[in-house]
Design brief:
Length: about 150
């Protein structure tokens, strides 16, 4: 396998390990298309997919340097009722805390230099008459791949 596969697998492996109570965490079958996931997966879900890559123009021997973005998606069901802003705020904060735990873990616990870049903020999503919160964060990794 190439480095890109190793990095992807490491990110997928680390996310449940970084979060508290990973037993209720579900990997999203369709991480690139949130709307293609059933509500069951969105209760507390995560997904990883490939973002853009850039040749950094650095060559060492037969290796080129590539900077790749990986997109990490997190979802959480909002079980509050419309007149309960405190529970809604708590659910949003819990999602942000999960993201912070993942940022810290990927920075500290991998042999790859996986760095948080940005996120799009929390977005409400409605699926099967339920409300979920969603956030997608971009992580950048620079690595070398051997070229023929």
């Amino acid at each position: 396998m190439s480095k890109i596969s190793d990095i992807y697998d490491k990110i997928v492996e680390r996310i449940p390990l970084a979060l508290s109570s990973p037993s209720d965490l579900t990997r999203l079958p369709h991480s690139s298309f949130l709307e293609n996931n059933a509500a069951l997966f969105l209760r507390r879900g995560f997904g990883v997919h490939f973002g853009a890559g850039v040749n950094t123009e650095e060559v060492i021997g037969c290796q080129i340097s590539i900077e790749r973005t990986f997109l990490v998606s997190l979802t959480k069901e909002d079980v509050s009722i419309d007149i309960d802003p405190l529970t809604t705020a708590t659910n949003q904060k819990l999602l942000m805390e999960d993201l912070k735990l993942i940022i810290d873990d990927l920075y500290q616990n991998t042999e790859f230099n996986i760095l948080y870049n940005n996120d799009g903020g929390i977005i409400p999503v409605f699926e099967e008459k339920k409300k979920f919160f969603f956030i997608e964060a971009a992580f950048n990794v620079t690595y070398f791949e051997t070229i023929p």
